[in-house]
Amino acid sequence: MWAYTLRRIALGIVVLLGLTLVTFLIARVVPSDPAARWMGPRATAEQIGAARVKLGLDKPLYVQYLRYMADMARGDLGTSIRTHQPVRKDLAAMLPATVELVVVGMVLAVLVGIPLGVLSAMFRDSPMDHLGRVVSVTSVSLPTFWLAMILQLVFFKSLGILPLADRVDSIIKLTYPLRPGTGFYLLDSLLQGNWPFFHSTLAHLMLPAVTLAAYPAGLVARMIRSSMLEVYQEDYIRLGRAFGFSESLITFRYALRNALAPALTVIALTFAYSLGSTFLVEAVFNWPGMGKYAADAVTTADYPAIMGVTIFIAALYVALNILVDIAQAVLDPRVQLS
Amino acid sequence: MAEPQRLPLLEIRNLSLEFATPLGPVYALNLGGLDLYPGEVLGLVGESGSGKSLTASTVLGLLPSRRARVTSGQVLFDGRDLLRATPAELQHIRGRDISMIFQDPMAALNPVFPVGEPLLRILRLHRGLRPAEARHEALRILDEVQIPDPAAILRRYPHELSGGQRQRIMIAMAIAGGPRLLVADEPTTALDVTVQEQVIRLLQALQRAHGTAVLFITHNMGVVARLADRVAVMYGGDVVEVAPVAELFSAPRHPYSRLLLDAIPRVSARRERLPAIGGEVPDLRRRPVGCAFAPRCPLVTARCLSERPSLSAAGARQVACFHPLAAGDSRTEALA
Ligand SMILES: Nc1ncnc2c1ncn2[C@@H]1O[C@H](COP(=O)(O)OP(=O)(O)O)[C@@H](O)[C@H]1O
Ligand SMILES: [Mg+2]
Q: Mind listing the pLDDT tens digit for each residue in B14-37?
């Protein structure tokens, strides 16, 4: 198991190396002059030339790439053309916001999707099942931006119970400031016992997290339902019935575990996919995360920032894949990790 | 050996079961009657598709699919109709009063749980044992079904065991609740020939030791001859003949039983599989009017096509036929 995991990590690093090359090339063939951007609109030709030397842009492309990789090996992701800050510092500042949003969204998706799918399957063709299926189909087919707008209209404009956007109330942020910590507001405010801040953060998380969770929750529910229905047909489930096990014991103790293993890959893929939709969600809810940072980086051809974001997300995908394989082996003893 | 004057443990009466299909209903079972007495081994034989497995699962109140529907009849266990029992009553009976050995232990054991899990569960559920007691009892039962190193086996997953060990685990589960009726649906068909013999011996020994009544479904006439007290022959969803095993073999009375027995030596003498006999299996999409076997029967008359013969007693034997064979009867020989 450990040997397998290490091998998978090594393979993941190779994949990431290939990815840096591709991203680097694509970011640099875009017709845009990073040196000119670096100096701003009123720079002279000499100043731009000096910046080009300073940024190493006068060197051949492969030298630039090797230098970039050498820096990365030391943990230096370069300097953002747009913010003039180290990319690593920018990412570290943005990352907790995004991770907090994604984690809450995914936990929500699993907590809603799995029970919905299980109950639909357990009470197949009952009103419960019909309702569950309508809910899951709807949540899968709603466009993200539309859902975000509707949620804002209902919960902010009409009911006035949830905030429109941002990560925390700006007045709370001034009156009950958070001491520096992990950057995860929920966690930090909880650890510091800062309840007004915690409460405000939670309220601000609601709408973006629900928006983010809708698609994966629906998909998970559908996956689990069909997977459960298949498992219910198996002899080993009929055996449970033949030996007088109750339906809920059969469902929750046995069938769910059988159904979870094959559904896991799809669930993980859905999560990876919804990582992409955080960009949109962050834009709509003015969430100060990586999505916004990446969007700004793309529009300004800020290639060190683009690369930093790309590598980070790719690393997340790779890690997710490894985790799924390991989880599958834990759930199903027949899966051999090799 | 059963004594007919005793009260039956299991009585199946006029059981009709059909499947809803896109092409209309399939009348899969149309079973006039079948009795099983305490402590007896009743062999249930018949061609593939004759409804043996359906009969077995209906006895447990388990229908094989959502499309299956019992349209009439009773399954009386100890005088209680299982078809009208509540889910809670059924849960109480299954695994405790009646248990089942599945045909394919690989398919019937959950691949993602150690094989000890369901066994311990049954002991706790039906015998009210606490975890430590259940474990102790599980080890004893595994020993009884002759599994070496029971403590280690409890933690094994199905794919880590041999076919014979898996079926022994199934048998252990089936006897764990101390049932009065054991339904075994072709318990050796999925096993290697050498293992089949061991499993049959084990079942025989357990049956004798516990005095459990067994409904033993099989293709294998040789096994029936060794294990069963009486044999019921099924055809087209109905029981056409019931007789003590020796009498059925020496003098079958239903033409179908006769053809079935006559056909054995012509196939492989070693495996003694039920062979196909002339004609076609009945079309279950039409509700049978007369005798289901009439279209294939060498002795068919007009009455057989219009009227259904019911299983009527003749001493210890029962046969559903208007023209039953007498001992030494040679009327079917031309076709056999
Ligand atoms: N799930 C099902 N759907 C439709 N028809 C079925 C199903 N299961 C069994 N049948 C019908 O019932 C008949 C008897 O099946 P079965 O009891 O399995 O036969 P046996 O065990 O004697 O080989 C089959 O020939 C088939 O027509
Ligand atoms: Mg069968």
A: 999 999 988 888 889 999 899 999
pLDDT, greater one: B174 or B26:
B174
| Cβ B246 vs Cβ B81: under 8 Å | no
For A22, other C-beta atoms within 10 Å of its C-beta total 10
Tallying the residues shown for chain A, one arrives at 338
Note whether A278 and A103 are within 8 A (CB): no
pLDDT digits (tens, 9 = 90+) for A130-140: 999 999 999 98
Q: Where in chain B is the domain with CATH 3.40.50.300?
A: 10-97+179-266+275-335
CATH class assigned to B10-97+179-266+275-335: alpha beta
Mutant choice from A243, A254, A328 vs B, greatest count of B C-beta within 10 A: A243
Nearest CA to ligand 1 atom 8: B64
Confidence (pLDDT) at B267? 45
Average pLDDT, chain B: 88
| Count of CB atoms situated within 10 Å of the CB of A250 | 21
Contact check, Cβ <8 Å, A257/B90: no
CA atoms within 13 A of residue A60's CA, in its CB half-sphere: 3
Tokens 């889910």 appear where?
A: B87
CATH 3.90.580.10 for domain A91-337: no
Q: What is the structure's pLDDT at B202?
A: 94
pLDDT-based confidence at residue B277 (cuts at 50, 70, 90): low
Joined together, the tokens standing for residue A179 give 């001491």
Residue A240 · residue A251 · CB < 8 Å? no
Domain boundaries, chain A: 2-73, 91-337
CA–CA min distance A268, chain B (Å):
21
Query: Which neighbouring-strand residues pair with B94?
Result: B98
Write down the ipTM of this complex. 0.89
Give nearest CA residue, ligand 1 atom 21. B53
Surrounding residues of ion ligand 2, Cβ less than 5 A:
B 53
pLDDT at B1 over 80: no
Q: How distant, in Å, are the alpha carbons of A169, A235, B101, B190 from that of B108?
A: 57, 5, 9, 12
